[in-house]
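The methods section describes the discrete structure representation at length, but only in general terms. What matters is that the chain and its backbone geometry are given together, residue for residue. For illustration, here is how one protein appears when written out as sequence plus structure tokens:
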Amino acid sequence: MDALFHLRDMIASLDGPLVAALAARARLLRNDAIYAVNQTPPAGLDALATSYAKSRTLAGRVQLLRAPYLSVIVPRLCVPGDAPLEREACLAADIACLNAMARRLALSVHVATRKRQALPQTLQQAVATRNPDVVEQAITNAAVEADVLARVAAHARKAEATPGTIDAITQFYADWLIPLSRKIQVHDLLSPAE
């Protein structure tokens, strides 16, 4: 079995738990009051990808994802409001989402390693430019990304998410998770081989 195909299969298996966790979080109110302490602005995707790729622990990666999760993802998924009796459930759901997201994104580094080992001519030329945008364009596979989005929507329906939540989760993947995954791969492809 092709190593890259196997990694894509592993990523697909991690999408189910991540989508289920996001759908579960979307059923709860935002409860912004529980996040008022230690708010830090989220890094842009390029900076986040670099930090994420350099981090070697799940806990470190979860910490990097926390600020964008709270400022970008939770507002997209959850209705504003505060329900004091839901606060513990919100925190538990947030932990499940962050852990699932960190595990899924961790495989991006492995995908880049496999791509580096098999480096087709077009990717070799892109890497030789040392231009992150050129490399990102070379690794972007619209058909694979479309399959991921279809799979995510199917997982969300299976998790009994509302139509609005299905759209929000799919859009989160399209706008944030997939681009971040690509940027993590770009960082790894442009870093010296260890």
The CA atoms of residues 4 and 115 lie 7 Å apart.
